[in-house]
Design goal:
alpha/beta, 9-stranded mixed β-sheet, about 725 residues, 17 strands, binds adenosine-5'-triphosphate, globular
């Protein structure tokens, strides 16, 4: 992870043999305006009173470790299926695959070592269009990608060139350029599933630069114009900035009731939720409710809840629903997969149904009563579908907008009426900047994955959002924050968004891993990882598995490698076009591709049925991210397994927090891991406070009266650096 100059690899003579001749010619020719050079990328608040009433509902927690064990020796080898929709195994990898290009273990070039290209995105976020373009890693990746991907059309570089679509602010028209590509429309790997007739072949190679990198700036507006809430948006996807057009219009959501209410079964450990310790801190917290009936929701809402298969509240719902209904601000922390989405949606909908809505499709300016933000496109879309499900048959209309899609489409959705606006930050700011929505009616501001929304990656955007003209002050709106993890420093930052008497709900160990996930840590060196991965996947058979890697390029690489190994695989990461991302997720959801290789873009919030395994091919840089990643399995009382490759060379800093997370979740802790943890002892790290790594309590208890914020509110020394920014939207 950033420890090696992989750029150097691409100039190794033997690597050039990976370049299929036609690809090489095409790219090196500079045709289509592509620049295919190999210039090395430059590596790349709460002074609240002390008397807080703490509620403790407790009993022990039974470990949910009754796993559906698989016989380790089972040779349930995956069928040699051609990858339908994922990577074009069939034609793509068939005869012209990697046959002569085995990635040699122990060969430093054997693995696709990359500089941590998070850097490039960090830079992009902070400097705008600094280095996306002709010279950037896209080229490098192209070089390495095309040179290492033997599959004939399995991974095709997309063609950038200069995105010179004419600026055009009228969404009704072709809204001009959006920042889906860098200014120069970098090329990047593309998955072209030629073997199945899917639509992955997106690279037209036109000079419009279509398909450049997907443009993190869509969600994180660059900081260069940080004093102007509007100018950011104007310089964003609005089309005022040159860049390739984004024409993708996502398919409409399902209309039939069966699809809208489709859900998976709660698992055998669902009832064990009742035994989880819950702590509520803050003054005058309303009592928890025990049943949906006690929430006193309207009949339509109750019908929808029943149709969704919900019969019993989860702990976070028992506490959050009455708190939100009482009009209180809330910061809620509950384990992954325990129903946080419904915990905020249901009371918001109940309130809107009770007081009535103001926004209507007949108004020229849409003024939503609720804005929900989440860090990734897929997650916000999932939240929207939940909002749509629970509001079914009501007058409340939810709308979703996110980057990577046609801006005009987003605006058209809004003008049809918008009460609940689900949005990723960049697209939201763009729409606000275009004055397509008014903020005066906002009663609820929800930050899902709030710790992520407030860290250095998205925090400044969120600050701009609450400073936008018309946005009600925190005293006049209700602000709700949800996550499975809440580092202390982020909790302190959150105070700026919340009324001082907000309530803090902690379900179980704050930041703790879901106990329904059986966690295994294997010591695997960098060069043995692929072999180990294949071995594990072959034993797993066709059970749905998410494989997390640290960088986008590695995601492509590993997915390609697995396809070559006849394991149907697809991938999701920030360099894929939105259409491709949605296709990949769809193929994974339906089981067409039982393996999904992902960067941390898929680590948070995604709720996919039947994900039985999570494999951390690369461990993430923080323990919180680890908790989110493994939380893609073992959801809603179901059991799951997580296997993580621990490379002492690069992961030692995680040993201590890992030991803590494992033991808190009553998992076996390998002796070797304890030894590493001991030898890398970090003074100040304690099991309870987790030092800077992990919050365990409402920080108001620890930091009453103290403020460590700098004037900007985002202390670089306090706030964690963004996790794997390359993967986030
Ligand atoms: N009371 C309930 N009864 C049955 N199913 C529920 C209930 N509440 C939520 N679920 C289901 O549990 C699954 C997980 O819920 P959700 O995605 O809201 O979890 P989460 O806590 O937000 O997870 P994460 O931390 O990963 O974002 C969803 O499929 C949801 O429909």
């Amino acid at each position: 992870m950033g420890d090696e100059d992989w750029e150097a690899e691409i100039i190794k003579p033997h690597m050039s043999s990976y370049v299929p001749v036609f690809e090489k010619d095409r790219y090196s020719s500079g045709a289509n305006g592509d620049t295919f050079n190999r210039t090395p990328a430059s590596s790349s608040e709460m002074d609240d009173g002390p008397s807080r009433r703490d509620h403790f509902m407790r009993s022990g927690f039974a470990s949910g470790r009754s796993m559906g064990n698989r016989d380790a020796g089972e040779s349930n080898k995956r069928e040699n299926t051609s990858t339908v929709g994922g990577f074009g195994v069939g034609k793509s990898f068939g005869s012209r695959g990697f046959s002569n290009n085995k990635f040699e273990e122990g060969d430093s070039s054997g693995f696709w070592r990359e500089s941590n290209n998070d850097c490039e995105d960090n830079q992009t976020r902070s400097r705008g269009f600094s280095k996306r373009g002709g010279y950037q890693d896209g080229n490098d990746s192209e070089a390495s990608g095309s040179s290492r991907r033997g599959g004939r059309s399995s991974f095709r570089g997309c063609h950038g060139g200069f995105g010179l679509g004419s600026p055009n602010s009228e969404y009704e028209q072709d809204e001009g350029t959006q920042r889906t590509g860098g200014l120069f429309g970098s090329r990047r790997p593309a998955l072209s599933g030629t073997g199945n007739g899917d639509t992955y072949q997106s690279r037209s190679g036109s000079g419009s630069g279509r398909g450049g990198y997907k443009g993190l700036n869509e969600e994180v507006v660059t900081g260069s114009r940080k004093n102007s809430w509007k100018s950011d948006a104007e310089g964003g996807e609005s089309g005022d900035t040159q860049g390739p057009k984004v024409t993708y219009i996502p398919p409409p959501p399902p209309e039939d009731e069966d699809s809208i209410f489709a859900h998976y079964q709660t698992g055998i450990n669902f009832d064990k939720y009742d035994t989880i310790l819950v702590e509520v801190s803050g003054h005058d917290a309303p009592p928890a409710i025990l049943t949906f009936e006690e929430a006193n929701l309207c009949q339509t809402l109750n019908n929808n809840i029943a149709k969704a298969g919900y019969t019993k509240l989860t702990p976070v719902q028992k506490y959050s629903i009455p708190i939100i209904l009482a009009g209180r601000d809330l910061m809620a922390c509950a384990q992954t997969g325990s129903g946080k989405t419904a915990a905020f949606l249901l009371p918001i909908l109940a309130h809107l149904m009770r007081v009535g809505i103001t926004a209507s499709r007949f108004k020229e300016l849409q003024e939503p009563e609720c804005i929900i933000v989440a860090p990734t496109r897929e997650l916000i879309n999932q939240i929207y579908l939940e909002a749509r499900k629970f509001s079914f048959g009501t007058c409340v209309r939810a709308v979703v907008i996110y980057g990577g899609t046609q801006l005009g489409h987003s605006i058209r959705q809004i003008v049809q009426g918008c009460n609940i606006l689900c949005a990723t930050p960049g697209r939201l700011m763009d729409i606000i900047g275009k004055e397509k929505i008014g903020l005066k009616q906002v009663k609820y501001l929800v930050l899902d994955e709030a710790d992520r929304m407030l860290d250095m990656g998205f925090g400044p955007e969120m600050k701009k959002l609450i400073s936008c003209p018309g946005m009600p002050s925190k005293e006049q709106r209700q602000t709700l924050m949800f996550s499975a993890t809440f580092p202390e420093e982020i909790q302190r930052l959150a105070g700026e968004f919340l009324k001082s008497n907000y309530l803090f709900v902690a379900v179980g160990q704050v930041g703790g891993a879901c106990r329904d996930v059986q966690q295994t840590i294997l010591q695997v060196g960098q060069y043995s990882k692929r072999e180990k991965l294949v071995e594990i996947l072959q034993n797993i058979g066709d059970e749905r598995t998410m494989v997390f890697v640290e960088t986008k390029k590695k995601a492509d690489f590993i997915a390609t490698f697995l396809c070559q190994e006849k394991i149907s695989t697809t991938s999701i990461h920030g360099d894929r076009e939105q259409r491709e991302r949605e296709q990949a997720l769809g193929d994974f959801r339906c089981g067409k591709c039982p393996v999904l290789v992902a960067t941390s873009v898929a680590a948070r919030g995604l709720d996919i049925e039947n994900v039985q395994h999570v494999i951390n091919f690369d461990l993430p840089s923080t323990i919180d991210e680890y908790v989110h990643r493994i939380g893609r399995t073992g959801r809603c009382g179901n059991t799951g397994r997580a296997i993580s490759f621990f490379d002492p060379e690069s992961d030692s800093h995680l040993a201590q927090p890992l030991v803590k997370v494992l033991s808190d979740a009553q998992q076996d802790v390998p002796a070797w891991l304890e030894e590493i943890a001991f030898s890398t002892y970090v003074p100040g790290f304690s099991g309870n406070a987790r030092g800077n790594v992990f919050a365990s309590v409402d920080t108001r208890k620890n930091y009453q009266g103290k403020s460590t914020l700098n004037t900007a509110g985002f202390s670089s020394s306090q706030a964690p650096s963004p996790v794997d920014d390359e993967s986030w939207d």
